[in-house]
Target: DUF641 domain-containing protein
Amino acid sequence: MQPTGVKDTQLRDSNSQKVHPQPMEEAKKQNPEAVEALILKIFTNVSSLKSAYIQLQEAHTPYNPDKIQAADKVVISELKNLSELKHFYRDHNPKPVCVPPQDSRLAAEIQEQQNLLKTYEVMVKKFQSEIQNKDSEVLQLQQQIQEANQKRVKLEKNLKLRGLSAKESEGSGDENGFVPMDLTPDLFKAAVEAASRAIHDFSKPLINMMKAAGWDLDAAANSIETDIVYAKRAHKKYAFESHICQRMFSGFQEESFSVRPENLLVTKESSFQQYLALREMDPLDSVGQNSDSFFGKFCLSKYLVVVHPKMEASFFGNLDQRNYVMGGGHPRTPFYQAFLKLAKSIWLLHRLAHSFDPAVKVFQVQRGTEFSEVYMESVVDNVVMDESDQKAKVGLMVMPGFWIGGTVIQSQVYLTGVKVAE
Model:
């Protein structure tokens, strides 16, 4: 019989030996084929993951090519490190001669080379795509250079016609480096479209303020033009746009635009210079610098005819702003600033029209005129004509038309007695 303390100590020693597994080196000596096959499988899977991940990244290239490409480089670099570790392990742990299963090692090597081949194919496709993009950019730049050269030749030709050489014109730009553009029908057409948008934009706050002031919009629209049959109630907004247009374009055909400032000398060259001077300026800054200018007086006169005194009194509760304008001032209120944007667009169009030789002519369309696709354009899309033989007729002229040389810019009209397809 042994003492109890000695017996317990032996039992603890025996138990402690059972809970600890054998070291890895011992396991490897006992079964090296399994350990090596496991490691090869891990590395093969990592290599496969590299190929799959790169292909996935290629599919996401349109989102942000630069960031994805940079991320790909990092991933590839890390996976290459794993591959080097695998080769390091293989070099320092050669397969024993007695191990028969060479097929497993060879298959893993083949799989790795296939995955690397897929990786290189993906990278080649990326490089080919980048080359194509660069070629496309080169072609676009060549086209831009060609267009710039054509514009330069055209500008030099115009300068020669005006008696200016290229050297003399180098300092002809303004302080911002602006070079005057050519007078073309397209330039005038763009100005017409800008004026049309300005009328539409000013009518919105005008109608909203009428609503807020409690105006009967149906009655107001009917007072502008009576007995118009509107396809939709919302189309009555064109009556207000027509009202603004008629008053803003009054006197358009005159060189002075019904404004008679002192010492006025209107020529085609001065009209174009006035167009260039105001084109890039804020209209409030322009009238602020010189309220008695040609443009400033134009704004004062048009504001008084576009905005009725009763309308203004209902908006603001008094006529203080109107009296200020009548005294030659230009208030900095939001409503008047909105009007100045409208006035600027019409003024620029007038200055540009009288810069051409011969000057651009404006034409209006009267109510009841039969619709003509040559001279008119409907402001409402999807118009359905009446089934009868009668042609559609004009109810409102929203924007006048213009003759510029042999080109016709259609007037914009609202047709009455028609339907609108949904």
